[in-house]
Amino acid sequence: DARVTQTPRHKVTEMGQEVTMRCQPILGHNTVFWYRQTMMQGLELLAYFRNRAPLDDSGMPKDRFSAEMPDATLATLKIQPSEPRDSAVYFCASGLGQSYGYTFGSGTRLTVV
Amino acid sequence: GESVGLHLPTLSVQEGDNSIINCAYSNSASDYFIWYKQESGKGPQFIIDIRSNMDKRQGQRVTVLLNKTVKHLSLQIAATQPGDSAVYFCAENRAGGYNKLIFGAGTRLAVHP
After folding, report:
1. Which of A24, B46, B47, B81 is the most exposed place for a label (fewest CB within 10 A)?
2. What residues have CB less than 8 Å from B39, skipping those under 6 apart?
């Protein structure tokens, strides 16, 4: 089965450190989403890309978060500097656009201490 | 980030009964909807989708109903099994400009033997 691969699965870091999360979308998928999941806020949309171009990143705190797709096989989400309130599970999802559904990765569980 | 709701209602059912999970969506311009299942420690898993030009779609043991008049979506699971225990999310694809997928708060389904 084709899958979305996220690395690392778990990350514990100290406040102030840079964190980079990676996502390998399913080959051929042209749409990539980044979500953050917490108990309080549920699944929040942070950013999404189509054909590697960022379409909307209004959900991200711009001062510390950045999302990029350096090529079609890699999407990255970076936090610099990280804060304890960034602790959450971060999911990447990819798809072919509307009507085809979107496939989620297993997530990166981030803990900032 | 964009999300919908903070509270997570729970639906408890007996094994073998039918389950109905409801979702209210907010944007009348949304034209595509997806139900996802999320098990503990995993990413959301696609179950079934429906476009706004339909009011019903059936899959294996699952049926999605869409009522655009009242902006309501439901997921029916027939003969619920213990393996169906999970959190279920509805997601709406907000059309207009660039489509983006926004999730509801989720409903926890607990299946009792």
Report:
1. B81
2. B45, B86
Residue A30 sits at the chain B interface (C-beta within 8 Å)? no
Does B105 reach chain A within 8 Å, measured CB to CB?
A: yes
Structure token pair of residue B99: 């489509």
> A101 CA to chain B: closest CA distance, Å?
7
Least confident of B8-22, B38-52, B92-106: B92-106
Instruction: Classify strands A65-71 and A10-13 as parallel, antiparallel or unpaired.
Output: unpaired
Which among B75, B82, B80 has a CA at the least distance from the CA of B106? Answer: B75
What does the alpha-carbon distance between residue A110 and residue B48 come to, in Å, rounded to a whole number?
29
CA distance B90 to B108: 12
What are A45-84's pLDDT values in tens digits?
999 999 999 988 888 988 999 999 999 999 999 999 999 9
> What 8-state DSSP symbol labels residue A46?
E
